[in-house]
Predict the 3D structure of the following.
Amino acid sequence: MEYPFPLAFVEFATGPRALQYQSMPKLIVSGITYELVEQLVTIGRAPDNTIQIDDPSVSGRHAELRARGKTYQIRDLGSTNGTRVNGTTTTNTALHPGDRIHFGAVEVRFAGDVSVGATQPLPAAAKVDAKVATTSIRPADFGNASPFRTRGKQRDPGRTALFIAAAIAVLALLAAIIAVLTMHAPTP
């Protein structure tokens, strides 16, 4: 993914300092691009890793990437099949754009320009002057855009009378049923 602006700032959790990149550093795994935006990125087969690689040659917790100064450092976490950078087995190595990394049998590419400048503070937030409204009125052309009819503010007296009549009819029916059930047949 290319950004429409020349520089992107990434803020890591360690403080208000940012690494400056021409394009975001990323790992490309089997055609899927993962942008590296965190201070620490874990890689492995287990689902709780930042980047999960579902391959039997990759350990559950295979390796980690950690932002170090102007680049990322890769560290093998004691994986069974090891980690190789550009064909060389490694336990702890700084990464450079274009590096080919192997986690077991899976090849991954590190891409993106590494830091082009020194660490810089983030720009200060701009102050916004906004006036608080003293009055508020409803626009003259304001209307309800709902597809459902709005309920009227006043009750329809005919509708209320209908509900009362229906309630009386139901009560009368219940009284009649109870009266029939409680009657005793005459004894012969």
